[in-house]
From TrEMBL:
It is found in: Cytoplasm. InterPro entries: Cytidine_deaminase-like (IPR016193), FdhD (IPR003786). Its main location: cytoplasm. The keyword Transferase applies. HAMAP family: FdhD. GO terms for cellular component: cytoplasm. Required for formate dehydrogenase (FDH) activity. Acts as a sulfur carrier protein that transfers sulfur from IscS to the molybdenum cofactor prior to its insertion into FDH. This is Sulfur carrier protein FdhD. It comes from the Bacteria. The active site is at 123 (cysteine persulfide intermediate). Signal peptide: none annotated. One of its GO terms (biological process) is Mo-molybdopterin cofactor biosynthetic process. It holds the Pfam family FdhD-NarQ.
Length: 274
């Protein structure tokens, strides 16, 4: 599996910065030339055994991990052994992932009657039909609540592990933490669900035990984030921002421990049900 990616993670643009300085009675605006670092997002076409399946907007980094994780959380593959080969190549306006899968996975691709998914950056289930969401099978997991001290430790150190986000400030992160709160794996992307797919893909490719520890998200925890974590067999998810009601119901139904929002001043344990 190899990546051939010519796109940078971020680009710099000339901009004018407006700041405010406090005068005697009012705030005075000051305008000056500056530089803004903007995270790149490119379309990635996912093609399984020559069949167009989806086009997702992603940050062009750790793309192999994303393809593996997306394939798993989309239920195209059941395990990493279903993947035969991944080749990432540059196209005129983006990237293409040619993915070879086994016969069982190919049957799943062929069974999909919808048109190829067009996934925008902020969307985790774009292109899915209503039935595929409401009737989605959610497996059960063995939830384990992390120690509060471990969560606090991860919260204090998470920003320093966001290597790609330094100087950009707009990339989400999904981090895997050991039970003691030590952060061991981080994946980043302009899309929060992409970051989680990348982390899950890394775990699939490297036999990470997602039952021992917890996942830390820098984003809100919506339904698809909870569903992806459950599919990966994670025992606990911690997110900086609040969860949606559907995410709470999904987590409770599956036994996933969901702690959200988690801030330096405190946190809410919303799942499993008390």
């Amino acid at each position: 599996m190899a990546e051939d990616i010519p796109f940078p993670v971020a680009l710099s643009y000339e901009a004018e910065r407006i700041s405010w300085q406090q005068g005697d009675d009012i705030a005075i605006s000051v305008r000056e030339c500056s530089t803004l670092m903007a995270a790149e997002e490119v379309p990635l076409a996912l093609v399984y055994n020559g069949i167009d399946y989806a086009v997702m907007m992603i940050t062009p980094h750790d793309v192999d991990d994303f393809v593996a994780g997306f394939s798993f959380t989309e239920n195209v593959i059941s395990s990493f052994v279903d993947l035969r080969h991944i080749k990432i190549t540059a196209q005129p306006d983006g990237l293409r992932a040619d993915v070879r899968v086994n016969a069982d996975a190919l049957r799943k691709v062929l069974a999909r009657t919808r048109r190829p998914i067009a996934g925008r950056t902020g969307c985790g289930i774009c292109g899915a039909d209503m039935e595929s969401i409401t009737n989605r099978n959610v497996c059960g997991v063995s939830g384990q609540e992390p120690d509060a001290s471990a969560i606090h430790k991860a919260l204090e150190n998470l920003r320093s592990h966001q290597v790609l986000n330094k100087g950009i400030g707009m990339l989400h992160a999904a981090a895997w933490c050991l039970p003691n709160g030590h952060i061991v794996h981080v994946r980043e992307d302009v899309g929060r669900h992409n970051a989680l797919d990348k982390l899950i893909g890394y775990g699939l490719r490297n036999q990470v035990d997602f039952t021992q520890g917890f996942c830390f998200l820098t984003s809100r925890c919506s339904y698809e984030m909870a569903a992806k974590a459950i599919a990966a067999g994670m025992s606990a998810v911690v997110s900086l921002s609040a969860p949606t009601a559907l995410a709470v119901r999904t987590a409770r139904a599956a036994g996933l421990v969901l702690i959200s929002p988690a801030r330096s001043t405190g946190m809410y344990v919303v799942s499993p049900a008390p």
